[in-house]
Amino acid sequence: MYSQIGLVLGSNMARSDSGLIDLSLPISNIEMALHDYAYHPCRGLEQLQSTILSLQKISQSSITHGLYHQRLNSFTAAVDELLLSGSPYFTHYHSALLSAADALLQVAMAGQFSVDRSRQLDGLLSGERSCWALVTSIANEKGSPLEYRNYEARLDSVQSNAMSVDDYLEVFASVGRVSFQLDSIQSSCVNGRFLLISVQSLSWLKRRFPLLQWQVLSVNDKEPLRDLCELSFLPLFQNITMPRESRYRLLDLFEDRFKALFYQPFGSFFSSSLSHVHQTDRLVPSMDNITTFEQDTGLVYFPVCHGGYVYIGAQALGGGAETSYIKYLGCDYLSYFLYEIETSFGRFVFDQKECLGRYNVELSDVFLEEEAFWFEPEQGVRAKILLSMPLVAPQYAAFCPLLEAISQVFVVKQGMFYFALPYTFFREVEAACSMMTVPRSWVKNIWLSQTDVPLLEPWLLSGNMLPHLSRCPEKNKSTYPSKNGYYFGRVYGRMFWIEADLLLALLPYKESSLVVHFEGDELRLMPLFTHHGRSFDKVMTRESLSEDSNTSVDKVAFSVILEWMSESVVLPFASCEWSITLGASHCVREFSSPSDELMSGEGIKSQLAAMQEGDFVVDKKNYLSFVAAFWPPSSLA
Asked: The organism sits in which domain of life (predicted)?
């Protein structure tokens, strides 16, 4: 291909002054992308996709050859399909893409001179050529993911000192899901194992990384598509470097494919004879065991997304304040359009599927009943007017709007209840819902915008009460071996030793957002930390560890996320190191939950400040008591 490209490239560049389109840059980019595909499959395919879309755009007006555009569309679809399938590398795929790209470029060159000249090259576009047969086959493989495998690659630092652990992790992250199991450190020599889930073949991995000792642990039949979407959608949704056209093309492919494979209408869970089911056409995550669902004609059923997870909600027919989440359906990781409104308490968002609309109101439209004000936007719809909110944005000086001053309200439905929110600003935004370990009573959902800004959807039902959960979401159980040793470092002046198996992520320090919410009649300031589509509200603050918030401490360098037994916390480390053994001379291992009279912030601080001596040690045995001591109660679920 390269020699052929060179010939036509020289001809084209020589004639670019004659008004012909200069294809030298697309040719060069395609050549580099196909070369990169052999070493970095995902990166090479992404570059190839972007360049082919550019070629498609610039050749639309200059080339009228119908078969050329048909083959170009097949080539683009094949690249899209390979990206969706995890970017596998195979030698026969590479050869087919090289031959097909060569044919397209030669026809594009000839087409700039005359239609007849391009027709002379029709043989290059013939469907009988093996390259086009394979490209078309790849493009038509809808919903047929390749086989994922669990690999182990042993690192011996003496033999493979050309690349560091971080270098390997960076490369492996582009070909699958990877973690590193540290076995030992002797002087400066690191020994351990990389655990990789990937569609790449063992032969490719051995050829690409010959200094590692490879073996296949198992075949992953069910890992691929759902996890691929969950891991890929948000980074793609928030990608600001990819060309807009390429990005939206991939997002549309993701959404169409995964809604077809992993979502189903809410009404399909229920018998056709059951009449009290709301939003029957709304797509929700699909479940295989719907036959085990026991249905009750005395309940009203509706879909609910709370904390990023979707449930079947239920309420007694004919009213009643109590709501139950009777079945967990899964997490919803696609993007949706929301309505954002500004109130006197801040800006908040609501899912468009749960919004009735905007209404102008006059004082005569409002009536008082059961010590609350109500508004009827439509026949049979009663919406409670909210003059206070459970959430307050810290930058707003919140005040309760006077009833006489309200001129427009936004009507929202949560569960089977309607609420009318006075507002002054309205717009449409697109966002993806972040995940929380369990639902919280202070927020319904935390959405993430395309610029990774958290958008809050308030929980309007029953104050601080959560619906009854028949079953919490089950966390994916890791197939990786346990991590060894301890991570240790200073947190606002106190030394913490953390059992390595509790570590979910070790990140460069990222400052938390602040959220104000009501606990009873009190306003509480809460830090909110987001990372890779997940939200965490248990964040260690300086005030938790020191009676004097102005105490000079080391500059924070890392954000460390811990997770165990569905409880997640974030610790800000000034430094972070690893040790195979516990090195503290005197350790604090016991953490007791504060009594009711010590539940205030000052009470908790006094109790923890009493532990003056020793380093805090957190392991699986005391992790839940540690969480309960610093963030009482330990869970709102």
From this structure: Bacteria
